[in-house]
Amino acid sequence: ASRVVKLSVPGGRGVLQRRTAAPPHDLRVSPDGRRVWITLDGLSQVEVRDSTGRLRASPEPGGAPHDLAFHPGTNRIWFSNWGSGTLTVASTVTGRRLGVVAAGAEPHHFAFGLASLWVSDHGGGTLVRVDPRRRRVRGRTPVGPEPHHVAVAGSRVLVAVHERGNVAIVNRNGRRIRSIEVGPGPHGIAVAPADTPRPR
Predict the structure, then answer these.
(1) Which residues pair with 183 in a beta bridge?
(2) What is the DSSP letter of 62?
(3) Do 15 and 8 meet the contact criterion of CB atoms below 8 Å apart?
(4) Which among 27, 52, 61, 132 counts the fewest CB atoms within 10 Å?
């Protein structure tokens, strides 16, 4: 519907909604909680909005932005790009591109952790380990066709392998340890903090 919606937590009540320039795809809240960065299907620009949903900027970091993530402790944001083997690094201050990293056939999603950026190469069937400071690939781990979202859990990295119906588990050095069968088409994945109360 080309809009973003803000909900109250945990009730889920709609607080506000705002139209976007195109269908929104992925979004992230900035570490300080003041801005929301949104990628838009089919556009080279992204939208940066404040907590009221007001549009603050529409930078064009280059490529066709897909997923995005803030590089912890820096003023940089990373993007994957539709139909491209490169990742884009941009400034969160200016929105301008700072560099690119060739990461595979078509990297889709990623997560920071264990001193690396872990990237699912959807087109190449691998989990790519990137040094985010030097902006270079450290290694590639075959995990199966169409890996999608990635999450870091303690000293392990988890990736949902869409076509194979499992979650691949990789250690901090990029060695695949094992896989867990979860059923057809796993897509997203998230890790609950260890202190999360268990339901009764």
Answers:
(1) none
(2) S
(3) yes
(4) 52
